[in-house]
């Protein structure tokens, strides 16, 4: 089982903005920004932490569970880091987007964390896409003692609105629901 929450949830005034299929989306204000920070909570069945890691590192399948992701390519794997290139379809008249992420994996006995940071200059820009230049997130998957395979995922996309709203595809709260519905289908 996986549950999505924010590590810094005690430091922010999170407001529930959407809930569906046991997926709850929260937002909070970001001081000095017109964008909001978001977190999502849900439960997902994984048999163990290794399987959760396999899902998060299987870049070729991101397009199967990330909303509007038209392609997902592994650029490079290096130690505990992977570099990914993703493209996203956007409705006319908005231009399609692309994104380069550096994902750092940190493992312990009962926890897996994936910190994502946007690296817009890591590879040459493709003129067919508008490059997303700001996106950060934190996923935390933790095995809980109450159940043999209860895992918790935490995500805090910093300025996620730049990434998701910039696509102009759907509202942030709806896009996050779609993201985790896709992940739960795996």
User: Could you name the CATH topology?
Assistant: Alpha-D-Glucose-1,6-Bisphosphate, Chain A, domain 4
Number of domains: 1
Oligomeric description of these chains: single chain
Estimate the mean pLDDT confidence. 75
Helix content: 10-25%
Q: For the report, how would you describe the main beta sheet?
A: 6 strands, mixed
- The rough form would be described as globular
Structural class: alpha+beta
Rg, Å, rounded: 16 Å
Number of strands: 11
- CATH level-1 class: Alpha Beta
Provide the succession of SSEs.
Answer: EEEEHHEEEEEEEHH
Distance between the termini: 13 Å
Write up what this structure looks like.
With 186 residues, the chain is α+β, with helices and mostly antiparallel strands. It has a single domain, classed as START domain (Alpha-D-Glucose-1,6-Bisphosphate, Chain A, domain 4, 2-Layer Sandwich). It has helices spanning 49-57, 62-65, 160-164, 172-185, and strands at residues 4-5, 15-20, 23-29, 36-41, 69-78, 81-88, 97-107, 111-118, 130-131, 136-142, 153-154. Strands 5, 6, 7, 8, 9 and 10 form a six-stranded mixed beta sheet that branches.
How do you describe this structure in short?
The protein is an alpha+beta fold. Helix content is 17%, strand content 37%. Strands 5, 6, 7, 8, 9 and 10 form a 6-stranded mixed beta sheet that branches.
Task: Name some characteristics of this structure.
186 residues; alpha+beta; Alpha-D-Glucose-1,6-Bisphosphate, Chain A, domain 4; six-stranded mixed sheet; three-stranded antiparallel sheet
């Amino acid at each position: 089982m996986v549950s999505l929450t924010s590590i810094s949830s005690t430091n922010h005034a999170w407001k529930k903005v959407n809930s569906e299929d046991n997926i709850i989306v929260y937002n909070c204000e970001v001081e000095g920004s017109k964008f909001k920070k978001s977190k999502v909570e849900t439960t997902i069945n994984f048999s163990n932490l290794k399987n959760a890691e396999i899902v998060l590192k299987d870049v070729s399948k991101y397009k199967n569970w990330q909303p509007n992701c038209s392609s997902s390519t592994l650029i490079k794997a290096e130690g505990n880091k992977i570099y990914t290139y993703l493209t996203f379809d956007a409705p006319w008249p908005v231009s399609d987007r692309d994104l380069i992420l550096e994902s750092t994996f940190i493992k312990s006995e009962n926890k897996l964390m994936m910190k994502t940071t946007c690296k817009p200059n890591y590879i040459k820009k493709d003129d067919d896409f508008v490059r997303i230049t700001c996106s950060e997130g934190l996923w935390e998957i933790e095995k809980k003692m109450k159940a043999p395979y209860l895992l918790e995922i935490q995500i805090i996309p910093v300025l996620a609105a730049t990434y998701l709203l910039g696509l102009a595809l759907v509202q942030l709260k709806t896009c996050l629901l779609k993201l985790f519905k896709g992940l739960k289908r795996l």
